[in-house]
Amino acid sequence: MSDTGYALEARGIVKIFGNHVALDAVDFGLRPGEVHALLGENGAGKSTLIKILTGAYQPDGGMVLADGEPVHLDNPQQAQTHGIGTVYQEVNLLPNRSIAENLYLGHQPTRFGLVDRRRMETGARGILKRYGLEIDPSSELGAHSVAVQQIVAIARAVELSGKVLILDEPTASLDRNEVERLFEIIRDLKARGLAVVFITHFLDQVFAVADRVTILRNGKLVDTRALDDMTRTDVVRLMLGKDVAFSGATGVEDARPMGEVLLDFANYGRKRSVHPFNLTIHKGEVIGVAGLLGSGRTEMARIMFGADSADEGILEIAGKKTSIARPTDAIANGFGFCPEDRKAEGIFGDLSVRENIIIALQGKLGWFSALNRDEQMEIAGRFGESMDIRAASLDMPIKLLSGGNQQKVILSRWLATDPAFLILDEPTRGIDVGAHAEIVRTINRLRDEGLALVVISSELDEVVAYSSRIVVMRDREMVAELSGENINPGVIVQAIANHREGPSA
Amino acid sequence: MMRRILTPLANPQLIALVGVLLVNWLLFPNFFRITWQDGRLFGSLIDVLNRGAPVAILAIGMVGVIATKGVDLSVGAVMAMAGAVAATMVVAGYPAPVAVAAALAVGLACGLWNGFLVAVLDIQPIVATLVLMVAGRGIAQLITEGFIVTFTDPVLIYIGTGSFLGVPMAAVIAIALMLLVTLLVRKTAIGLFIEAVGVNRAAASLAGIRSRMLLILVYGLSGLCAAVAGIIIAGDIRGADANNAGLWLELDAILAVVIGGTSLLGGRFSVPLAVVGALIIQAMNTGILVSGFPPEFNLIVKAALIFFVLVIQSPLASRIVPVRATAREAHK
For residues A293 and A456, is the Cβ–Cβ distance under 8 A? Predict the structure, then answer.
């Protein structure tokens, strides 16, 4: 070990894409035995820096040092030989092979030239034990939860590399207990002297597990600091470069004036999807929907929008009985829907930002009254500005935008249709703090403008802050409708957790 | 302003076409000579237009299908059916316009059937259109009762071999169709919707695009184009040959579309560039013929071209040169 004291260091890294400077003379030092959080809004340069540290990209300037020695990393395999391993948000292992095979893929123990399955499984069992997993190493990886798969991915990276572990948003698809378990493993690895880089959008997690933090903004290094002497607000201020006040959870404002009834779902449901539910929605109100993943919240949204048609119940829009069997019916009635899985159901990756914004409006106008290019530009430009969409050009493919900006585009897509009712399914999941704040601001603005909204979200603080009522889903059933002053995240969690005998709507 | 006009011309497809023509010229110095004879133009270049027209017409229909992430394998068989219908009807004494209309209707019906299988029954396009690819030729043989039905109807022969203002009729029809379909998809929202469905059908449905209607439309158009090509081929040989008319041409049409920069994974497409793709294929065929190489070379050269195009469109190449970007810009 040399005198720099860093297991891995980046000095003055510059990376340029076309005429966009992604990283501008960024320094980053990682000590052995520390958990180092890397923070920044989407587009700040986090992933670019990681890709340089793991050899996926080559820097245009500056250098990477491992144990104080300059190294040239041509590819991730080479980074591995320097002890640098990476685990990405989406587990990229082979779900249809056994856990042991996944752990040993590419370096299986062999006997007479054949894979020595027994030795491999014994070894795998030993490794899994160290990570607190008592599972059969010959079982298929895909049969286990994402959390277990994530741990297997970490185990593989650590076994292969052993010095530096880079975790790129490892907690995005984990629940609270699973996150806690992951943290135990991270702390354990830290105690073993590993250097861990931890990338996440969740500030709580940063404070829970990290020792130091490096913050990037617009490709520049803002600061590297120990977390001990920092508060949440400090971190956010450094990330955004401005002051953002976090409103704590308060009771739902009952005093908010209630508009006239817009929608009335009566006994509305679909077999094998969602039990019949009753819900009345007024103009100018936000209904928050809480519930765990798989509780039926997304199914409820899809039925409301006609993406799956309801097979029982009645819907009245402004007092008139209306049937919504498919999305076009819903859109014709002024509905809009931002789906949970942005990539699979929201964006048109290869199409431009402009086309992604106008497509629902164009769908409403039909095949033959096409918006011409100038009209499209005008509409896209208007929303690009009001929603603060960060894109180099409105003609660039949307897939090149960050998640937060993609979400703003999809929201703009619906706002362009001049909707009366919006359904937002996890609108703030997995996006950066700035976009997050923008979307919450937009939800508040739309409510005040008289729109009716249904917002599904796991962020209870946030739901409480903007909703006038909260419905709770459990086991594909609407189990509670909460309103009044005493609503806080604790009550909601209780409603989610309660058994069937609990209070129901 | 000049740049705006010239930039679309600087795309790989047009450059490739010019390149193939230049090679032809090197092998056969008279390649670019065009003469005026009997009120029409003659020359190898005109021949490329004339012979390339049927595949170009198929490509005009095929490009929309491929842009929706589909494929239409039945177009060759539909050509044979349309030719058989037109030929047997004029032989039976029906006036030519009625025979042509009936042939077009058969093509459209075939396309709509494919569209129904793909859009409503959700069958994979390659399997759905395989049904008609096999059955269509059988139906054509039933219509012609196994014979090559020859005819002397002047209107049908004019469609296959005549000329308009000196330009072969087949080329005139292909150009007219290209302009018509380009206007149809680009002056309406249909082109955008086709691309949206091809890129992400789930998102398209949620955005309120009637993807079923759209799919039925593009397959219907493909069937209609195939019928037009079938009538031209029948008129050209003055008869309907159910066994050989349009045989394997579906593959040429797919190749033309892919050369034209439309990915088989759907999404961005360009009708004019698909036509250019068809002309590139025909320019190579004609070049090999006029320069005296044995026609067997044709297949090998075509295979080399396919390989070349696939390499250009491979992810590796697009990392080096952003080729697909040109297809995107071309229709703007």
Answer: no
CA of B113, closest CA in chain A: separation in Å?
22
Q: Using an 8 Å CB-CB cutoff, list chain B residues near A355.
A: 192, 195-196
Topology of domain B44-330 in CATH is ABC transporter involved in vitamin B12 uptake, BtuC (1.10.3470)
Sort out which chain B residues have CB atoms less than 8 A from A366's CB and list them. 189
**Helix and strand numbers, DSSP H then E, in chain A:** 16, 22
In this structure, what are the phi and psi dihedrals at residue B111, rounded to the nearest 5 degrees? -60, -45
Q: Are strands A84-87 and A164-168 parallel, antiparallel or unpaired?
A: parallel
User: What is the rounded distance in angstroms from the CA atom of residue A501 to the CA atom of residue A505?
Assistant: 12
Higher pLDDT, A377 or A252: A377
Q: In this predicted structure, which of A434-448, B182-196, B224-238 has the lowest mean pLDDT?
A: A434-448
Q: CB distance B187–A370 less than 8 Å?
A: yes
Indicate the pTM of the whole model.
0.72
- The tokens for B186 are 């680009």
Domain limits for position A151: 8-96+140-240
My answer on whether A346 and A480 are in the same domain is no
In the numeric block, the tokens 């044995």 are attached to B294
Alpha-carbon distance values, B37 to A461, B32, B34, B46, B161 (Å): 84, 16, 10, 13, 15
For B211, the token pair is 């993807």
B218 touching A (Cβ < 8 Å): no
Q: State whether residue A361 sits within 8 Å of chain B by CB.
A: no
The pLDDT mean for chain B works out to 88
Listed by start position, the domains of chain B span: 44-330
Q: What is the pLDDT of residues A140-187, one digit of tens each?
A: 888 887 778 888 888 888 888 788 999 888 776 677 778 888 898 899
